[in-house]
Write a structure and sequence with these properties.
There is one protein chain. The chain is about 60% helix and about 10% strand. It is α/β, with parallel strands linked by helices. Strands 2-1-3-4-5 form a 5-stranded parallel β-sheet, sandwiched between helices. Helix 6 links the parallel strand 3 and strand 4. Helix 1 runs antiparallel to helix 2 and helix 2 crosses helix 8. The protein is globular, with a radius of gyration of 18 Å. The termini are far apart. About 5% of the residues have low confidence.
Length: about 220
Amino acid sequence: GNRDFAIEIARDMSTWQSSGGEYTDIRPGDKLETIIKNVCLNNKKAIEDTFQILDCEEIRKAVDAIHKSGTMIFSGSGASAIVAKDALQKFPRIGKVCYSWADPHLQITTAANLNKDDAAVAISYSGETRDIIETAKVAKQSGAIVIAITRYGISSLGEMADIQLFLSSPENTMRSGAMASRIAQLNMVDILFSGVASIEYRTIKKYLDRTYKVAHTKKNKK
């Protein structure tokens, strides 16, 4: 179908671009102006390419699962852990019980205490990060809905998840891919947060007002 064709094109273009196409790696000796341009273009392209392969139905399922969840955990390792922490900065502001641990043992422990009314968001661009896969497995065994945020294609994390949210970005020699993939992951978290906030706006407005007032008061005291 058209969607599958678009996904295949995006995946192949990502591979081609990573090996010398539109995505540009950062090379030793580059001028600062060139580095600025390339980093900005890579990040922008990661969001654009991800947009081309987004599955609105899968995102709708993820938003609904988070909306209905009692407790959520966001797990990630390395750069993906930063994305998980970003989610932790957002969802508690609208009254959601949310956890994110850097320690993999705490991730698994929290996952073991989830139930069928909860959601576990596992973030791994490669889809092969061992600690994140183990946490997702434990969460699934506990009955929670597992949502994977990972690159497009077949991966261990993607295969086991109940809901798959795919990304597309480069993975280049000097790890500019880790930058661009992080941006794509952060963008996905923003989409999920905005989707849930939109559904729950009437009830969460009081939470947003409270958190704004607390933050504003604390800032003025400084």
